Amino acid sequence: MRIEKATEADVDAISGLLGEVEAYYGGPADPADPGQIRAALFGPQPVATVLIAREGDEVLGFASYSFLWPAAGADTSIFLKELFVREDHRRGGVAGQLMEAVQQAGQVAGCSRLEWTADADNPAALNFYTALGVEPRKDKPFYRLPLAD
Q1: Would you say residue 64 lies in a domain?
Q2: Count: domains in the chain
Q3: Phi-psi region at 91: left, alpha or beta (left = phi > 0; alpha = psi -120 to 50)
């Protein structure tokens, strides 16, 4: 297995993966809009980076992250927005290797910490993060304000 930074040639693969993420959370399995992906990841002001796990030509899963500032003082943090492994490749070490790759990206960028959220009703994810030895923070509530319909 190899993990590599997504390129514009991966837009269709990312589109399909995002449809699988939606289906995992109970939504429609429709692929995401390739134009939105292209603009968000490869446009003039990229807002995220995607790492793709592959075995040969087969896409196993992905992680997406962004950098946040400030973290502590003037430090920078890396924020894991999504970690997803296709169902037939779960429990094979793919998620762990993707997490390691995100950590490494943060270290290379000089970040002081890696942060993420998890859905309270996703026991598989919660168990995975607990197995990493990371406990959830109870002092940081999460808020969301929709900006568009």
Answers
A1: yes
A2: 1
A3: left
What are the C-alpha distances in Å from 146 to residues 48, 143, 149?
19, 10, 7
For residue range 44-91, list pLDDT tens digits in order.
999 999 999 999 999 999 999 999 999 888 899 999 999 999 999 999
Question: d(Cα 69, Cα 111) in Å, to the nearest integer?
Answer: 10
Q: Which two tokens stand for residue 68?
A: 């946040």
Instruction: Name residue 21's amino acid.
Output: V
Boundaries of domain holding 89: 2-131
What's the rounded Cα separation, in Å, for the pair 1 and 81? 22
pTM of the model: 0.92
Buried b (16+ CB within 10 A) or exposed e, 102-120: beebbeeeebeebebebee
CA distances to 23, 30, 124, 127 from 121, rounded to whole Å, are 15, 22, 9, 11
